[in-house]
Each structure stands twice: as structure tokens, then as C-alpha cells.
Specification:
Length: 260
């Protein structure tokens, strides 16, 4: 049976996409604890602007946002060729495995460390490896809950908007359904994660939550526009891999249409 599965190119493609989707999401969660300055990365001075009465704001983002745009590109590709049920399946799979990973991180943080390991890197300026380990992997539970909830809700929004646009446009205007669904779902993602992690979890004011949300969304919106051509590039490669006729059948099946 495994041989027949591995000979089927659409199945092999879906397995590969799912593996990358889950791995990319997990990596994004793991590196999300680091905050970086987008302005410094681009070689410009940090901004200092005011939104909703919150002053001194600049584009300080988590490293996780570097990878999250890829998740929404993959979502649109799966939507296009496999349909909404496939998107929900890979989304649920990612959430379950990320939750499992964080449970293992929590367990590892609480396992008693070996005495020699605690001071193993003092010469490198790390006085306590146990504290360093906990600082990297010990994200607050509200942040984890907010991130996973936002991811799942935004994925559902993305797949819904994508298919509603496609029902109107048909096979035309790939950029519209891909970019349109992404910019809407990213807005939901930005708000939900901040609301749960910092409004509920840390008592932030509404003004601060909305200000940070707008800053984060500006970046995500910009990246959604910039990365739109990547959708066309990936679709071209998929058609080359599975063949034009098979790709067309996959798209019809994704829309729930009978094969001709």
C-alpha cells in the first residue's frame, strides 16, 4: 500500500506540504520569544510614532513573524489544490503537535538538571544554563494559548474568505483570493493573539493592545502584498510536478466540482 501512496504525486505533494507547514509553524513558535527591530534590520533608525495615545512605538517584532507569512501562503496553496477540509486537517495537526512540543518543553524545564551542566557555559557569559534554558523555552502560558488560538481562528477565516472569493472569480485572479484572504486573516491573527496574551493575560489597556496590533498588522499586510508573486511561482512548480491535467482536476475537486 505504501508503494501506491508514494507513486501518487498529489499524495506525495500533500505529505511534503504538511510536513513543511507543521515544521515551519513549530519553528516560528520556538523563535517567537526573541524581539527584533525591523528598522535596525533594514539599516534605518527606529521610528518613534504615536497611535491611540501610545507614544514611542516602533517596529519591534517577534522573530516568529518572519516565518508566519509562509504559513498563509501554504494555506492558500492547499486551499487551491486540496480544498478547505485539507486546510483544516493540516491546521489541526499543527496545533496538536505544537501543543505536544510545548508540553515536552515544560517537562524538560522541570527535570532536575545535572550540577555540572548548570555552570557549563560560565566562560561564555552564561552563569546558569538552567535559567537560560527556561528563559528560552518558558514562554508564558497566556502567550502560548493566545498564539495557538489566533493561529487556528485565522486559518479558518483564511480558508472561508479564500473560497468565497474563488466562487465569485473562478480560476481567475489568483492574487485576489490569495492576498485578500491573507490580509483579512492576518488582521484576525494579530488581534486575537494580543487580546488573549496581553489584554486577558497581562491586563494591557485597550489603547496599547490596538496600537501594537496595528503595528504588527502593518508588517503582515505589507508582507502579504510583497509575497503575492510567490503564489504564482509555487503554482507553476506544482503544475510542472503533477502535470497540467492533474492540477486542473485537483483544483476542480478542491472546489467540490465533479470531474469531467
Amino acid at each position: 500500500m505504501i508503494h501506491s501512496i508514494l507513486k501518487d504525486k498529489p499524495t506525495k505533494l500533500f505529505l511534503g506540504i504538511t510536513a513543511f507547514f507543521v515544521a515551519n509553524a513549530l519553528i516560528a513558535e520556538c523563535i517567537g520569544g526573541k524581539i527584533f527591530s525591523l528598522e535596525k534590520l533594514l539599516g534605518i533608525n527606529p521610528s518613534n510614532f504615536t497611535i491611540f495615545g501610545q507614544s514611542g512605538l516602533s517596529f519591534n517584532l517577534t522573530c516568529g513573524v518572519l516565518l508566519w507569512p509562509l504559513e498563509f501562503i501554504i494555506t492558500d496553496i492547499v486551499n487551491e489544490y486540496y480544498g478547505p477540509r485539507a486546510v483544516r486537517r493540516i491546521s489541526y495537526t499543527a496545533v496538536i503537535l505544537i501543543s505536544y512540543a510545548f508540553l515536552m518543553f515544560y517537562a524538560a524545564m522541570n527535570i532536575p538538571p545535572a550540577d555540572f551542566w548548570i555552570t557549563t557555559n560560565q566562560s561564555k557569559g552564561i552563569p546558569n544554563m538552567q535559567d537560560a534554558f527556561g528563559g528560552i523555552f518558558g514562554q508564558g502560558m497566556w502567550i502560548i494559548l493566545g498564539s495557538l488560538t489566533a493561529f487556528l481562528v485565522s486559518q479558518i477565516v483564511d480558508v472561508t474568505v479564500f473560497h468565497r472569493i474563488k466562487k465569485v472569480t473562478g480560476e481567475k485572479w489568483v492574487w485576489l483570493r490569495a492576498t485578500g484572504s491573507t490580509v483579512i486573516s492576518q488582521l484576525v491573527d494579530s488581534f486575537v493573539v494580543l487580546f488573549i496574551a496581553f489584554k486577558i493575560g497581562n491586563g494591557w489597556s485597550w489603547q496599547l493592545v490596538l496600537a501594537i496590533c496595528l503595528v504588527n498588522y502593518t508588517y503582515k499586510f505589507t508582507m502579504a502584498i510583497i509575497l503575492t508573486p510567490v503564489i504564482y511561482l509555487i503554482e507553476k512548480q506544482i503544475e510542472k510536478y503533477v502535470g497540467h491535467e492533474t492540477a486542473a482536476k485537483m483544483k476542480r475537486a478542491a472546489m467540490g466540482k465533479e470531474e469531467e
